[in-house]
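Section handout 9: paired folding examples.
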Amino acid sequence: MTYRKHIKTFAFITALLAAALVAVLATRSPASVTGKVVSDLGGKTAPNIKGADIASDKQISLDSMLQSHKYVLIDFFASWCTTCQQDMAQLEAFQFHNSKKVSILGVDIDDSAANGIAFLRSYGAKWPAIEDSNGPDSIAVTYGVASPPEMFLIAPDRKVVAYFVGGATENQLNAALDDLQKANLKN
């Protein structure tokens, strides 16, 4: 093989490896991030959520929950999600200590209603949850949720005021709520 053919072969292999690396990086999941982060919905009006509670079949909506002038924590979860399972004790404690200020609305994604009900009951969760449909009109797509757990804290004026990805501790949720209440006192 001539020197020129070696260079062409080397250039071709290098280009092929570079293309493969770009393909891998473009299709991999984002780095694991947990806690409070910035959302495209931050400060904007939250899309309304409505549907039947998976346990009671009673119609519920974000708008109806906000009528009590409380914050609403929307929890996107799935029964198979390990982090969601770990979050349940934190959510239970947060709800217990803040029930006069915050309600929780679960959105069960990529799961069956039966599994969602069993999951919530196994942890003693008392808040309503809606089963999300798959597809372009799903609640998860509307909110930009990639995978559970993701949580949005919605103010009584329906503005998205905090966003958590990869789970949240009771302390993180309390800190977000405290920050909001302090900001409201200043206004």
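Moving on to protein 2 of 2.
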Amino acid sequence: MKVSSIKRRKTFILFNVSSVLLALDQLTKSLALSRLGDGPVEIFWTLRFFLASNTGFAFGTAEGYGPWVGAVALVIAGMLIRMKNQIEVTGGLISLGLILGGALGNLADRMFRGAGWGRGAVVDFIDLQFWPIFNLADAGIVIGVGSLVYYLWKQEKIGLKIKSSGTRNSDA
């Protein structure tokens, strides 16, 4: 395959996965906001939907640092987009897309669900009651990071390396 078609394929996978997660995340958050105002909905065992918001970082830490968290998320999103050319396996690109989609989903909340850039609160609603409340974006980030670590390890193990010129090299 030509280098340009490989780059297009990688871009296609990354942006489609991240777009689908972003759309599902925002849809479920909108549903949570419209339907969970009266209290939690018990689903199964300890799983319930319970409306909460987070103006800080992961698990409610760094409350009030929303603008900084938003800026860091933008930088990370840019880094993830650039990183796509270093990933050789499709699973790794899907993982990258999950991380990017999750970061953009929570960033969208910070941008559009508050008074001023970065002052918005992330909508959380999935409550296991033994873990901090989260949303689909958070789940995408966690699953994406875990699977990306696996795929990068696998890529390294089978000897796929990337030269700085962007070409594949099994000897490096």
